[in-house]
Amino acid sequence: MKFTPFNLEEWFDRYEHQVDYMLGSSSCAGWTLEELFELTGETIDFPSQSTTATPVPGTPELREAIATWYKNSTPDDVLVTCSSTEAIFLIANTFLEPGDSVVSMFPVYPSLYQLAADLGAEVRRWHLRHENQFEPDFDELESLVDYSTKLIILNNPQNPTGITLNDEELKQVLNIADRVGAKVFVDEVFRGITVKGNPLTPSICDIDQSSIAIGAM
Ligand SMILES: Cc1ncc(COP(=O)(O)O)c(C=O)c1O
User: Fold this and answer.
1) For a substitution probing ligand 1, which of 153, 155, 159, 163 has the most ligand atoms within 8 Å of its CB?
2) Best substitution site from 13, 108, 109, 161 to test ligand 1's pocket, by max atoms within 8 Å of Cβ?
3) Is 10 inside any structural domain?
4) Is 128 a member of any domain?
5) 163 backbone dihedrals φ, ψ, rounded to 5°
6) What is the pLDDT of residues 111-132, one digit of tens each?
7) Which of 24, 49, 180, 183 is the most exposed place for a label (fewest CB within 10 A)?
8) What residues line ligand 1, using a CB cutoff of 6 Å?
9) What is the pLDDT of residues 61-89, one digit of tens each?
10) Other C-beta atoms lying within 10 Å of the C-beta of residue 81
């Protein structure tokens, strides 16, 4: 497999650490551990931590903690990876072969569709259009899927447009996926970013347990 250069990350690599004020990144400013502990009310005794290898899918405690983010999930439904990038890589490699197709929201974080293309899958773009306030067009999605479609790839909350899909909209996507036997894969790394007082964006896994969600710190 040949990897297409990841222009976005190469651009970040060139400029991100050279400037005083970084406005182009999707992440918040880095926190110190002290600030993080203040927020959680917990501390970690680092000197007493073991450096041995952990169980491959993640420690039971961590998987259990992550499962509490989802209504019906158990630790067995959770796999811990080294960043969501590794999860995206695993999902693409698990589900896709040359000749398959994927439908991906566009614009979106590039590895979500580029890895699929590099694996030989046809990428069909489900455009979020400025003139429609980036609202998704479900008729368009319907017209993009067929029996070669293995994954419908979403990002919710969406980077870079900022839109969110609610329960009803996610169910619409699931119905369309179901018609052709495709799986729904949602990048939910920005779940929890909603402004204080507003409800948490729904997770696809709370609506359909055969779908895949990825999250991040
Ligand atoms: C939507 C989205 N998914 C995944 C990633 C990759 O995140 P990670 O640093 O966890 O690999 C990013 C990074 O900006 C992102 O914006």
Assistant:
1) 159
2) 109
3) no
4) yes
5) -75, 160
6) 999 999 999 999 999 999 999 9
7) 49
8) 26, 83-85, 109, 155, 159, 187, 189, 216
9) 999 999 999 998 999 999 999 999 999 99
10) 16
